[in-house]
Amino acid sequence: MDDREHSARQLVGFWFEQNKGWLHARLCRRLGCSQNADDIVSETFVRVLSLPDPAAIREPRALLTTIAQRLMQESWRRRDLERAYLQLFQHVPEPVQPSPEARELLIETLLQIDRLLDGLPGQGRAAFIHSQLGGMTYSQVAAELGISVSRVQQYMTEAFRLCYGALEES
């Protein structure tokens, strides 16, 4: 570990000691659960540690609040996806249901797709999901969402651009 990385860890450690109680209390009020707040506080500081230059941060509490808010939203999205997934498979016979491992992998994949399409508006995401996961044609998607086929095409072009961009980065 070089001096810069060591200094960054010390700085984030100082922020942790100064702000963990404040952030935890804030999250407890929002979440109503101390354990969930603990998890988000920990993950918040892990994300701060992964930033390229923590020393450049001028308002640590503002950054911590922003990161924690995003983590809460991710948690809520995951819960909503899990709930929708369980509802979908609640009427499927037991032998056909995926294993717990496969279920977890599917939920993680759906979350990755959700994050990948973060730049799209809600209808754009819905168009992509209906088309790619639901197997609907663009005409069917347009009818379902109450938009034009050309708008569906625009959304799909943007969604595919985001997907290809993510592939190029990995």
From TrEMBL:
Span of domain RNA polymerase sigma factor 70 region 4 type: 111-163
Keywords in alphabetical order: Sigma factor, Transcription, Transcription regulation
An example Gene Ontology molecular-function term: sigma factor activity
Superkingdom assignment: Bacteria
InterPro entries, per database record: RNA_pol_sigma-70-like, RNA_pol_sigma-70_dom, RNA_pol_sigma70_r2, RNA_pol_sigma70_r4_t2, RNA_pol_sigma_r2, RNA_pol_sigma_r3/r4-like, WH-like_DNA-bd_sf
GO terms classed as biological process: DNA-templated transcription initiation
Signal found in the keyword field: no
Domain RNA polymerase sigma-70 region span(s) in chain numbering: 16-80
Keyword Transcription regulation assigned: yes
Sequence similarity: Belongs to the sigma-70 factor family. ECF subfamily.
NCBIfam families: PRK11924.1-1, sigma70-ECF
Descriptive protein name: RNA polymerase subunit sigma
Species name: Stutzerimonas kirkiae
